[in-house]
Amino acid sequence: MTRPLRFLAPEQIIAIHDTLLGATGGRGGGGPRGAAYEGVDAAAQAVKNSYYETLEELAAAYAVYIVQGHVFADGNKRTGAATMLTFLRANGRRTAISDERLAAMMIELQRRAESGEDVGRLVRWIAVELARRPAPPRRPRRRRRRT
What we know:
By secondary structure, the protein is mainly α. It has one domain (10-132): Four Helix Bundle (Hemerythrin (Met), subunit A) (Up-down Bundle). Helix content is 59%, strand content 0%. The protein has six helices and no strands. The chain has helices spanning 10-24, 38-48, 55-69, 76-90, 99-114, 119-132. The longest helix has 16 residues, at 99-114.
């Protein structure tokens, strides 16, 4: 029996964005599609209705659609990265990608998206990067004995 995928709702993506802006600064609000975050709705639906099959591809699609779509007035790369990692964790997957590598990937994603690179290629590129760096397995927690 396979566990159903846990997709992120637009409200969850907006909450991630708001948390990041609160911690690191930046302008709030939606991007060019409107202050009501229509771009976030479109990005979330695009991922959910996509043909991508692996968790890494779906996670990468969140980052690509958020960054390429410029769905927020500010913080798209931060939110794309955080949403991608949140989706992986929500579905039982982790990655050992460093903060520095993640930041470099988001900058490169923006550069490549602005140059017109195909969305499918961008998703596959990031998915490969994520799959290359799986997190080591967690050690089981020991239960404390009650005395």
